[in-house]
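Usage

Read records sequentially. Each one opens with the input sequence:
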Amino acid sequence: MGRTDLRRSDVELFASQRASEAGGLQAQLDALIDRQRLAEEADARGLDDRPAVRARLAEARREVLAHALLEEQLQGATEDKALRERYAAQKDALSRREIHVRHILVRLPPGAEAAERRRAWDRVNLLYARILGGEAFDTVARESSQDEVSAPRGGDLGPVLEGQVHAAFFEAAAALKPDEVGKPFETPYGLHIVQAISPVETRVPSFEEARGRLAAEARREAEARWMKDLRERVSVERFPQAMRPLEAAALDAGTAGTQGETSR
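and closes with the structure output:
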């Protein structure tokens, strides 16, 4: 007979960690019972006395306790009132430029050879010439753009916020007047022709849109303050000599890996 009482909280935690797996609650309970059987058998065999196992158990305990403490300590930093105050203080800084654009993409992989680059530029210049010659931008985009998402929409990317796309792309688009088509240019994603549909506007995200970012910043700042306080209160004695065998082993492993790569 097993020696452990499994509680509802045990089942809920186990099931939450395997939410993507098939099967209902009963299947999760059966799986948890099987894991408990294995754990009890391992305990009966004294596996928890092995140094490697003890180290892993200590690591798991350390991580669970550290996570629990941080969750408790940082809870106030992400409360609704605190985040709304942060939003009000940072509202101007949160603003981003926005522009509505169409684009045509000719793919050019990073590090492409000269011949491939020349063919890509010849292609994009030909498409640019067609537009300058009077063909509608959206028609050329539907026929020839290599952006599978926007091409069926005539190249329309919709409103684009600064930071959502490569900086070179946004700056090239932001320099255009409405309906103006810019000369082809390059980003790490390929070659682009861009047409501005509307002028650049400054957009301030709503509180709900900014909430995730604000919460992440608040947690990082609160954790940094909490860790600074802990480091000042909890002294640590280090033993560099104890680390030397580990450092030597890591160095040997790195050297072996380099030699292995060279031999291939």
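Summary fields computed downstream for this record:
- The chain is about 60% helix and 10% strand.
- The radius of gyration is 29 Å.
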